[in-house]
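protien #1 (seq + structre)
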Amino acid sequence: MQKGHVVILENLLNLVTDKKIFKVLDAGSGRTSLEQITAILPDSQVDAVIYPGDVRKLKGIKPLLTEQIRLLEWDICKTPPEGTYDLVVAHLLLGEAGKFGNGFRDLLDKLLMIDSRYYIIIDYVEDPTVEEKVIREYCSKKQYEIVEEIYEECSEPQVWKDFTGYHNFGYLIQNSL
């Protein structure tokens, strides 16, 4: 059985397959998100963004790098990546903001400032650093539409330092401007 966040990612990516997604930014890129994006959106170019010097992430995605996938070591909170994207994916990213000296709200703000038509945000319901209500409020304030929201129970709880994740949530957000 797949983990809840993987099921959510697959389902949300499948919802955009007919939306002409050619350029994707995978924020906080990892093996799971890259594999899903390239499998479901095989014709898209992917910018895989990891925090500068994050050896853990680099080690996991390095074998997946191809001409289709460009690696960018970038601190999104300092400067959002330039350019326009069809889709920005933040798969289990927001809960990691504190690992690199950033805050959840700052990272969310910078993430949703990236010029894109669609955003996918997935994280753990139980993560005390991720404020799901703030995501909704931000989208409402910016007139972004939450096109789909999915909640999944994890087949096996994930144990982290400060919480145990039993449930994942995911949003497909459309930039309506």
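ok now protien #2
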Amino acid sequence: MTRVNSTTSYRFLSEEWKEQLRIRKDARNKERLKKPLKTTVHIILIFNYLVLLGLSSGMYYFLRNHFFMLCLSILVAAPVLDLIALFFLCRGADVRITAPEREISRNSIGFIRLELINKSIMASFDMCIKLDVENSFYKDKSGTVLSLPLRAKSDYVKNLPVKYSMNGIYKYSINTITVRDLLGFVSLKKKTDTVAEVYVLPENDASNEVDMTDMSRGMTESEETMKRGHDFSDVSDVREYIPGDKLMSIHWKLSAKRDILMVKDRVSMSDQQMVILVELSGNDEAVDEILTLAYGVVSQFVREQTYVRLLWWSEGNFAFEERQIMNYENLRESFSDIYYEMIYTDSEKTKGYMRSIRPELKAYVNICMKDGKADAVIVEQD
């Protein structure tokens, strides 16, 4: 059994996997874009127009009036000109979707930006956009259809407000747009490919802190093998070199610019570590509560400058994934990696795997569901 516990190897495999998915997706999109456009003909509107054309013809032949002759000529030429305009309109019309905020907190309101592009001099009163929304972590899909006007030779931007009530990766995609002619006779469906992603992280509410009195039992001394090659400190200032400072603290780039040795003034962090295991088991609501509690607990340790080892069971790799949390950036990156995992049903197997795969951990904090709500439980291993 292969165990993938290294952060570097995980990121390498993750990036390679994403690149393979991107290549396959591009190939599918090229094949899809080669297919002809679908055309929808609105029979009722055409029938009504023919009735109007017949009435105008009857009035002209009965009255022999120049005004009715002019109206009849316009009614005959209008559909031909309308279809020609629709052809150029469909070629010049496009849509682009972007997310101004790459990351956002749960239970907050964000915006998705729709940019309607029209390179032609024609216009349309009805451009239908099929917007698909998916939370890839919970496999939750939904969609909506937007009907917007398309202005001639101009770009139109519309911001759509969205409230994010669940954690995860929200993917917004538009695969097709439908452009309708001014008379409403024909609708042309055009294929497009635009995607936007938003990472929704748990809210970091400092006022809702967790009582971590008993969590000290889950803290162990940092292993020497883990500390080797890592500097468990934060840079608080940069100052001039004083005899006795360590050479490893010299800021070489800044020293080269100023022609004087500058050193990084560091604030040491704790040499202890808190091991936290996040269970990704249960229904969507349960996992969402677990992630929210885990984010809050780790945030508190980061504020206290306590080194955290964050673990979770990966169904895809059949191993424990491990991240070293020393600051908020590490925390956000770790949760972004969690969103690519699979949710499993059996919560007890995580503890069993910990006993068999990680027996060296004498105690750890397990973030799981207990008595119907998310809780931080201290687990002591024999």
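Residues 1-13, 221-235, 267-271 have pLDDT under 50 and may be disordered.
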